[in-house]
């Protein structure tokens, strides 16, 4: 990206001098503390699941007595004795 703007010149009080500058962004890899995705809204896991924070992500596992992918958990039927 090239930005152009007018900057007053000390020698030319009533006139501007056009200068051009180069603008650029430097993107660096973020290295820092792990974000705990489970801290907010159980990480998006089901209310019937446990959210476990892992480095760089998280996992959801249905509670005992429930089955599913951790995001959706349904109660398991117990066998009739």
List the helices and strands and how they pair.
Elements: E1 2-9, E2 12-22, E3 49-54, E4 57-62, E5 66-68, E6 73-75
Antiparallel strand pairs: 1-2, 3-4, 5-6
Strand content: over 45%
Count of discrete structural domains: 1
Order of helices and strands: EEEEEE
Radius of gyration: 29 Å
- Specify the structural class: mainly beta
Strand count, sense and barrel status of the largest sheet are: 2 strands, antiparallel
Give the helix tally: 0
Write up what this structure looks like.
The structure is a single chain. This protein has 81 residues and is mostly beta strands. It has one domain. The protein has strands at 2-9, 12-22, 49-54, 57-62, 66-68, 73-75. It has a two-stranded antiparallel sheet.
Tag the structure with descriptive keywords.
81 residues; mainly beta; two-stranded antiparallel sheet; two-stranded antiparallel ribbon
Please provide a brief summary of the model.
This protein has 81 residues and is mostly beta strands. It has strands at 2-9, 12-22, 49-54, 57-62, 66-68, 73-75.
């Amino acid at each position: 990206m090239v930005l152009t703007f007018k900057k007053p010149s000390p020698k030319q009080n009533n006139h501007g001098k056009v200068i051009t500058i180069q603008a650029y962004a430097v993107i660096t890899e973020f290295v820092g503390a792990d974000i705990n995705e489970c801290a907010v809204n159980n990480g998006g896991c089901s209310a019937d699941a446990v959210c476990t924070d892992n480095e760089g992500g998280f996992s959801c596992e249905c509670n005992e007595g429930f089955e599913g992918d951790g995001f959706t958990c349904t109660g398991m039927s117990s066998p009739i004795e």
